[in-house]
Amino acid sequence: MDCRLGCGACCIAPSITSPIPGMPNGKPAGVRCAQLNDDNLCKIFGQPERPDVCAEFTANIDVCGTTNEQALWLITDLESSTC
């Protein structure tokens, strides 16, 4: 499965504990990443400063569902079950 351009759920729903440019302490769950632009695209995609956890994310129907809204719900649910 390919990522849906403009979805951004993986940049909003999960917490990220590693530093991100503009967010030196990472980000809490449910907070937009500082590197997510107005079109929900990563401004540092493919750049070395992009956190490894982001670069290693693979779109999957179980995580992303079939819509952007479903992806946000699924990732939020996964995040809450791992806290």
Structure description:
It is a single chain. With 83 residues, the chain is mainly alpha-helical. The chain has three helices and no strands. It has one domain. It is globular and about 30 Å long.
Structural class by helix and strand composition: mainly alpha
Radius of gyration over alpha carbons?
12 Å
What's the number of helices? 3
Largest sheet: none
* Unreliable segments of 5+ consecutive residues: none
Mean pLDDT: 95
Count of separate structural domains: 1
Percent strand equals under 5%
Order of helices and strands: HHH
State the share of residues found in helices, binned by percent: 25-40%
C-alpha geometry: globular
Spatial separation of the terminal alpha carbons: 27 Å
